[in-house]
Amino acid sequence: MHGRPRVKATGPPDPERVKATEKKAALFGQLAGEVLARRAAARFDAESLGLAGKLLELHPEVYTVWNYRREALGPVLDAGGEAAVAAVAGELALTERALHKNPKSYATWHHRKWIVARGFCSLEHELKLVGMLLDADERNFHGWGYRQFVVQRMGTPAERELEYARHKINQNFSNYSAWHSRTKLLPVLHGGDGGDDADSDAAAAALAAALRLAATSGDGEAAGGTGGEAGGQAGSQEQAQQEQQQQQQQQQQQQASSGTGAEQSSAQPPAPPAAAAAPAPGKRPGAGPAAAATAAVPKEALDEEYELVKQAFYTEPEDQSGWFYHRWLLGCSLAHWEQARGAEAEAAERDALLAVLGREQQTCEELLEMEPEAKWPLLTLTRLKELQQQVLDGGGGGGSGGGEDRAAAGAPAADGSAGLAAEVAEGYARLKEADPLRRGYYQDAEQGRAHVVAKPSAVA
Q1: 16, 61, 118, 303: which sits with the fewest CB atoms below 10 Å from its CB?
Q2: Is the torsion defined by CA of 373, 374, 380, 381 positive or negative?
Q3: Are 297 and 186 in contact (CB under 8 A)?
Q4: What distance in Å separates the CA atoms of residue 35 and residue 230, rounded to the nearest whole number?
Q5: For residue 18, how many C-alpha atoms fall within 13 Å in the half-sphere facing its CB?
């Protein structure tokens, strides 16, 4: 659970407690051995499943035992009727007890999804249950993922879930999961492809390739580390699509080789690999499906989101959750211009993007006036200026935007952004002083090797 400090042991361990722990571990080992032996013998009787349930209540992360239960219950659920209803009720009760033991058990959440997907239960009850969980631990990302799973099956409108996410954000601006939920819902609401996790992963990979943005989510702090931000320029969109297709093909092969056993998480066949979409007339090849998804969020809606996250900044400038969401918003704004590259609307979209960058720079500058030592406003301001410089330069080489094209689009000459380069260097110098643990990263960024906001050049 978040916000609960761990109690550190002081002094030598209590011999009696050590003895009791060893005895408990031995009993657990005997029970686990018995359950696994019964699974190997394909014993699906009530006594065997009862022992498996006891083992899972003690340690919910033994995913092999969850698989054992799916092997036993699969035929019962396939047959339907009262027996299936009773089996589902029993599994829901078991997973609920297991989640009380460990609210972040991956295997338990996976099993509960499998059960609910088979039917025979109330989705309204599931929504109420996960709502109670998120009231108790509002940043439990397992709970957020399960809520998304339930509301998708219920057909809940995206507007309602956006309101729920906003409610949770208003309760705590540091709720990263609530911010992330908005990144999933806004493209859906406005007609983009922002549905399930697989689509979102593919979209994220394609967006990184199309826009040349960093694929990392922060400075290592989100993952609990202190290392520098992993940079690296994204590959081409074609490579991203090929990698996605290879991953899907591997998943199909793994599922085919596993047979019909419980190792399969669903009875549904795997989705075929997504074919590379041909660019629409008048669109650049780089304006792929991910750019279309993020560009589907209208600029007016993005302005509202910028205002929402601005409230979080002014409440707690050093909380990183809002800043990560801000980076996603910048990607959406950049996608509007990226989609218009090479079209008549390019100059207008470019001017609109520059206006957004200027406005957000002003917000960061105001925050730094109030909190001169705050890292996140300074880092974001430096990134904004770096991106502004690159947009003014026309997005860099390697694509369809040569100097003549930029002149025709009304873009200034490359030397018009020379002053911004000095300001970017100054920003990284201040960051190295304020955040010495990442000094090496800022040094790389200053020399153009980190690619925090790499040139949004065209994809060949």
Answers
A1: 16
A2: negative
A3: yes
A4: 44
A5: 4
Where does 20-121 sit in CATH, by number? Answer: 1.25.40
211 HSE (CA, 13 A, CB side): 33
**pTM, rounded to two decimals:** 0.71
In a 3-state reduction of DSSP, which class is residue 205? helix
Q: What sign for the dihedral angle of Cα 78, 80, 85, 87? A: negative
Tokens of 59: 């340690």
What is the C-alpha separation between 163 and 167, in angstroms, rounded? Answer: 6
CA separation for the pair 364, 313 (Å, rounded): 9
Contact criterion met (CB below 8 Å) for 297 and 214: no
Q: At 347, list the tokens.
A: 């100059």
Give whole-number Cα distances, 73 to 120, 309, 356, in Å: 13, 46, 55
Q: What single DSSP character describes residue 438?
A: G
- Reading the chain (460 residues) residue by residue, the pLDDT tens digits are 555 566 666 778 888 888 888 888 999 899 999 999 999 999 999 999 999 999 999 999 999 999 999 999 999 999 999 999 999 999 999 999 999 999 999 999 999 999 999 999 999 999 999 999 999 999 899 999 999 999 999 999 999 999 999 999 999 999 999 999 999 999 999 986 554 444 444 444 434 433 333 333 334 333 333 333 333 333 334 444 544 555 555 555 444 433 333 333 333 333 333 333 333 433 443 344 555 666 789 999 999 999 999 999 999 999 999 999 999 999 999 999 988 988 999 999 999 999 999 999 999 999 999 999 999 999 999 999 988 988 888 753 333 333 334 333 334 444 556 788 889 999 999 999 999 999 998 888 888 776 554 333 433 3
d(CA 429, CA 420): 14
